[in-house]
Structure formats: structure tokens, C-alpha cells
Amino acid sequence: MMKTVFKRTPTLKDCPTHYCPGCGHGIAHRLIAEIIDELDIRDRTIGIAPVGCAVLAYDYLDVDMVEVAHGRPPAVATGMKRTNPDKIIFSYQGDGDLASIGAAEILHAGHRGEQITVVFINNAVYGMTGGQMAPTTMLDQVTATTPKGRSAAEQGYPLQVSELLATLPGTIYIERCALSSVAQIRKTKKAIKHAFDLQLEGADGMSMVEVLSPCPTYWRMSPTKAMEWLENNMTKVFPLGRLKG
Amino acid sequence: MCGNEALAESAIIAGCDAYFGYPITPQNEVPAYMSRRMPEEGRVFVQSESELAAINMVFGASATGKRAMTSSSSPGISLMQEGISYLSGAELPAVVVNVMRGGPGLGNIAPSQADYFQATRGGGHGDYRTIVLGPSSVQELVDCMPLAFDLADQYRMTVMVLADGILGQMMEPVVLEKKKGRELPPKDWALTGAAGRKQNIVRSLWLPEGALEELNNKLLDKYKQVEKNEVLCEEYEVDDADIVVVAYGVAARIVRGAVSRAREEGIKAGWIRPITLWPFPTGQISRAADEFRIFLVVEMSNGQMVEDVRLAVTGKAPVLFYGRPGGGVPTVDEILDQIRQLTLRPKT
Amino acid sequence: MAGKIIIDTERCKGCGLCITVCPKKSIVISEISNRNGYFPAQADNSNCTGCGACAIICPEAIIEVLRDDSDNVEIIIEPREDSEQNLIGEKA
After folding, report:
1. Looking at chain C, which terminus has fewer C-beta neighbours within 10 angstroms, N or C?
2. pLDDT (tens digit per residue) in B56-87
3. Per-residue DSSP letters for B151-201?
4. CB neighbour class for C71 (10 Å; exposed up to 12, middle 13-18, buried from 19)
5. Which domain does B64 fall in, by range?
6. Does domain C2-88 have CATH number 3.30.70.20?
7. Domain range annotation of chain A
8. A69–B18: do the CB atoms touch at under 8 Å?
9. Whole-structure pTM value
């Protein structure tokens, strides 16, 4: 007799997504939805959608959500968590949102040790607006705004956000993982779940999981190639692993 | 009590759940006072990394149904404009206090009223309005806070309280009492965790065809309601006046002195003091212009509210202006001089 | 055939990741495009073990995995209501 062992989790809405074929957002959304259901916290979780490809996250995650100005989720999360300590607040942000325009906000949320969970999707480009360079764009990577490939002299070096935030005493858990293979996805889920657990236990400080995610469309690769490129190249500049906590 | 501390205490009495702020003269006493008093009340105080973050913290707290406020001064309020536009688009209540200082740029720390346009026209993007209150005494500043929170919750809007360096710093006796607020609608839109209900979404992104237009028209209807019901204005001896001086806030106090001195000299002068700068008392000023009078607008700026007065008067009467920009404060004599020059001669 | 997967082909965007990760290579790209114009993945379930790799990597979360569990018996432990152990608490 066949028994279902894997099925869509209720918090992940059963509807098509606007994401490109092979995009990592879809996987990340599913992981978060599964964690929310496994921890049974749908009725006290509030999510924050960034400005970027995932701006429509609230169409896919069936929890109370707010969509916020570009780069400001950590500040909004602070406002929410401070006035609602019993709620579970998570901020879902892309690399442009968190590492570029929102750099001060994420730095200070960590600096203040806000008891929030941040899921940072790093796909090295600005997706929604057409594949421009992001702070985490790799050297020599061609993007809409680095036609000849990113050069350190012109555009500086890829920004290692996890390492940056790990130095702050206010951050209690920083891990970088990837969506580039089934095994990596399992580790990513474990890491995000640990971040949520910390908030559930009321641990004193911010937890952030940086998730290296493929963007086949603007890396100009097939989804499978994008996964390989991520695993072979990105992880060299953005080493995977638990940096803290 | 100094204005800054009085408005803070009044906000606490009005049930402010959270204050987020950043240091900037001349309103530093507000965050300092709040940092001491809010924890005493078991409420939230956060000093943010910037005004830009502060307004977004207000956004977060307000999105969960809490009463949240911030305060700053002109340059800081400029940094908050993006946030205020988002608050308006998402229809979230919020209270923002602007203790105005000389501008533009870093300007100075003297009092000013040069943020009038920014406040009443909206310094952010998109069609939106914020209710703007212009108190002219520390007591009125105190009374503005509960009113601001109620208006914000009732209309789900941002309410700005325009004070200035003088009002913030000066001390006056005040009465601080808990007044019964308005009947307010429940906040069933708030984000509290979808316990036993559909998910709530707070957002200002409306991509589908015509959806944003619909949202804008919904906002417009709301703003019309506010314009109909919430105008506050005070006037003095306008009926027999030949000259009507229009001013708000601290400028209005100085005008009051000048007008009474003018009356003593036999000049028939009166004044009108808008208290809600938006919604502007267009009707009241228009009615005052039905009789032929000269209007003199006095501001601590190079002339901003004067445009609203001209719009209200619709050419029925001349509207002149006298102002001191960049932190300048007009004296009673200066205004009296202006009034003396405006003698009404019947047409020969 | 210890397992089976069901793919919602109408919602598949033909990204091919499931095909790459399937250890048994039992998923192929269909020749018939769905109504969105994508050529979806198609499972022939011939030697599927129900490992779920495809479902874990699928960005659209549209793969349901079933596994034949007739051989492994599930042991369920339930304390009997009236057993001595339950009464310990009530002894005065």
C-alpha cells in the first residue's frame, strides 16, 4: 500500500509562483513553510517580505506578513518584536535588500541583538530589476551593470555579510548554507530551523542564515548548471558553514 | 515643563506603546525623556541608527496594531519621508512630531516653520496626505498628542505634529490629564499571527491593473472625510476687521501681540489661526474674504502657508506676506509695522 | 517498485532539477508542453524508490512522493489504560 511520505505543507499556499524556472526562492519558501508547520507556530508568526523577487512572498506563505520599503525589514522587525515579544518575527531578504540599501539596518539590528530571525537569500544579483550587480556579485561576474565582469578596482569585492555580522556580540547564530543540492538543502533547512528555535526559546540575540541561491535567468545558465556554478564557484568566495552559535 | 518633555508625557498618557527616535537638536529632550519613562511604564523605547530606521520601526509596531510614534527635527523628518509614504500606502496609523529648525540643509537649530510644504503636501512619493497639527502653546502641544493618536487610529493615517525650536524648548505650566478618547474602530487588519483566521497582509504594493488606482481613490475618499470633519481653526475679531493676519504655531502668538497693539492704535485688525494645517481651514478663510479685507500672512519662513491662504481667498482679496526665514523670528513691532502700512482706503 | 511520485505537470516550469538529482534517472522531460508552454518533467516511476530527492529540490513544490510501506511494520506503543503503572500516581 503506497503511503505519502512527502507533500506540500499547508503553510505553503497551493498556487503557482512568479519565480523563474529553477529559482532558489521557491525552495527557500518551502523550507520556511515546512519549519513553521513543524514548529506549529503559524498562529504567532509574522513574516516580512523584502523588495526584490520575493516581494510577493506573502502570496505564497500563508502567515501574517508585511511588505516593507527596500532594505528596511530589520528596522520593521525591531518595531514588531519589541512591541510583541511573544510573536515569532522573521525577515526574508535578498542580497540587494539586506547587503546594499539595508546594510545599516541589518548591522544595527545585529548590533542591538534584536531577537529576530533573518533568512538572507544571496543569489549575487538583483533579480527583479533585471540582473544588476549586487554587493555579493562575484569578481568577473557579468551582470547588467558590470558588462565586462565585476572588477575589484571598479566595483570592489563581493561582500561577506555573514562574516561581517558574526563579529557583532548581538548576533548569536550565523550560518551560511546553499540550495545547490539535496544534501545542502537539508542542511539549509536544519540551519533555518535552528534559527527559528533560538527565537522560540527567547535566546538573546539575532540569528541569521545566509542561503546561497541560484538565479538561472541572470546568471545566464540552465538551472542545473547554475547549481553546479554555485557549488563550485560561489562557495569559494562565500564559504559554507556555521560561523557562530 | 518644557514642550519636548510635555509632549512626551502626554503621548505616554495617551497610550503610546512604543517610541523610536534618533538624537537631533532641538528635540533631544523627547528621546531622552522617553528613554527614562517608557521602561517605567513597561513600554518600548528604542534609539535607532537613523531617522530612516526609526520611521520603519514605527511602521513595524503600527503594523501589529500598536500605538507608535517618533519625533525628530527637519533634516531627520526629511529622512522619514519614504517611510511616511509607505505608512500612508499601507494605511497604517502613526504619529510623527517635527520640532522644526532652520533649513534647508543642515541649517541651524533656531526655530522655523519652513517645513510646512513638506508636511502638508507630503514630502514622499505618491498621492497621499498626512493630518498636520500646528499647536502654538505647550498646553496645546500636550493636547495635540491624544488627538493625534486618535485621529491616526480612526483614519489609519500618519498624523504630524508641527512644533518648532521655541515650542520644544520653552517652559510653560501645563495640565496633563487622561481625557476620554474617541470611539475607535477595532484593528482587525493588524498582524498578530493568523490564529484562527485568514492571514493578514499589510502592504502598499498593488501591481494588478487598476488595483493601485482603486487604493488611491479609497485614500481620497478618506481624506475628504478628514477635510469635512476634522478642521480646527481659531479666530479673533475678524468680523469688523479691515486687516486679517493669518499665522499658526509660535508665529501666531507673536501676531496676537501685534494685533492687540494695533487695535489699541485704532487699527481694525484681527487674526485667524489654523490649528489643523491639513486639513486647511479653507472655508473659514474664504468666508472671511467675502467682505473686502486685506490678508497678511506671517510665517517663520519665506512663505508657504501663504499659498494655501491665496487658494482659500480665490482672488477675492489681496493676500500679502511677511516672513523671517532661516530661523529668524519676527518681533511684535515688525508685524505691527506691516499692519500699519496696510490702511484700507475706500475706492475714490 | 518501492516508490512513486506524482508531478503536477501543469505547474511544472521544466527547470529539470529533479531530473538531475534523481538517483535512478527515472524522470524525463515530457514532449507535450503544458498550458503555460513549459515542457514539464514526467515520471515513469519504473524504478523509483520514493527517496524524495526530486521533491526536495523542486522549486515549485509540486512533487508528491509515495512509498510502499507494506514490508516495514510500524510498531505503535500505547499504554493500556488500566495497567498497574498508570495507577501509581493515585496511591494515597
Report:
1. C
2. 999 999 999 999 999 999 999 999 999 999 99
3. HHHHHT-EEEEEEEHHHHH-B----------------TTS-S--TTSPPPE
4. exposed
5. 3-229
6. yes
7. 25-244
8. no
9. 0.92
